[in-house]
Amino acid sequence: MELRLIVPALQSDSTVPTVDLDGRKWQLTTLSDTSFSATTAKYICISYIWGYGRSLNPFNSTQTISDQTIKALEVVMTATRDHDVDGYWADAICIPQSGTSRQATLESMGYIYFHAAEVVVTLSKPIYTIINDMEMTGALDDDVLLTLEQDEWIASVWTYQELVNSTVSFASYDRSKTGLIVNAFDFFYGLALRLELYRQKHKVTSFQLQKVFPHLSAFEDCMLVWRSANPLSISALQVMSNMDKRVYRAEEPQNYFYAMMGAITTTPTWGAGGATIAEVSDRFMMMCEQKNDYSFIYSSTARDDRLGRRWRPVPGPMKSILSWHSYGGLATGYYDAAGFWLCEMFTYERSDKIGEPGKELIVQCFKLSDRATDSGDDVLASQVYETLVSIDFTGSPEYVTLENGFLFPQISLPQNSKLTILVSGNVVWPFGAPGLVIAFREDNLPTYIPCAFIGVKSKGPPASVLIDAWARAE
């Protein structure tokens, strides 16, 4: 990667182009590995929306950048003039424009944002006014929530990794509000409160609230991770389920994976591979494995067909099995002479009917009526499935009844196959956990099917389970 910063111009160096911004002269400098460590430099990262307009890069007239970059940069420079920093980092200016250094830098965004002194978000005047008014008065009506829901910055895939790695504040594009900064914690707390008040006012469930405000729900999930202040504990499934509710430009699909990489690791990349969708998605999974997190296995994506890798999703877009915030830690695993193991897994068997503890949790979490409870497992499972579909579950309605709950596989389970039903014990939802069904064919080769388990976890301790006897560490 290359770390470039916009720093005050040195009067002694007349060979480097300078740019007048906020009444001062600035230059672009590349900081080398030997003379610089991001852990000691103080710089501010600027978060903003590019838009579609373009203008010349004043630091390099042979390149074009977003026509919002300089505007955002000046706003932040003005607002943070009294902050003790060495320089500023703005993506359009500081990321190399081509070559492996560009890709390596894109893969190192988590490192760049994690080591920043702070991140300042530049917001449009209407959005900034909403945030500032909420901080001052606590007011936020339904129309204002809808305005926030439609805001590009709140919905962007880049927002997640920018927030979870950093100390964040907000500034306005409105230059009449120069120097005015809104604290992120106050906004996050206020938004969470207003969403809860909306839910109570309209008598909707948390699932229904997410359907109305998918982007704000993703933003609220991001706040939960941001408060933990430990990006190393973020699982791939947490990131994937959040990205399910975010947007990226169809012409730049790689950004989806670069943003996820920035969320799951703060380690820089000094050399990068290819930049196709298949290559960057495979790179994302490799980064997760290096972190000892295999929760990407709970993607709804089809599986690889290569022996020893059949449990792994095929390279490509990776939607989560269920677009809901998970917690609990990482899905750890390991290789040994026997093959590949997943740690902390529960093994379940089919049951004729669901037990009372599972039924009670489902009725409570899904706000189901007593009539649904009294109507039998089919009606109960059907209502659960409808709710899951409302939050973008794309799996099969052909559920499996377990003593502890219901299992909804991504695809219909094969008939007349030996099934091993596994449910995560360390990556969970409030109402269940992701899982994996291993179906063994007549030739004894396994088929891996991700699933959503809805119910209570087993009382016994989870254990490591061998899931692929053909797998070997690479």
Task: Please tell me about this protein's structure.
Strands 11, 12, 13, 14, 15, 16, 17 and 18 form an eight-stranded antiparallel beta sheet that branches. Strands 7-4-8-9-10 form a five-stranded mixed beta sheet, with helices on both faces. Strands 1-3-2 form a three-stranded antiparallel beta sheet. It is globular, with a radius of gyration of 24 Å. The mean pLDDT is 88. Helix content is 35%, strand content 22%. It is α+β, with helices and mostly antiparallel strands and 474 residues long. It is built from 17 helices and 18 strands. A hairpin with a 3-residue loop joins strand 13 and strand 14. Helix 5 crosses helix 9, helix 8 runs parallel beside helix 13 and helix 13 runs parallel beside helix 14.
State the low-pLDDT regions, or none: none
CA radius of gyration = 24 Å
Helix/strand-derived class?
A: alpha+beta
Please outline the major beta sheet.
8 strands, antiparallel
Cα(first) to Cα(last) distance is: 25 Å
Count of DSSP-assigned helices: 17
Query: How many E strands?
Result: 18
Helix content: 25-40%
Our estimate of the beta-strand percent is 15-25%
> What value does the average pLDDT take?
88
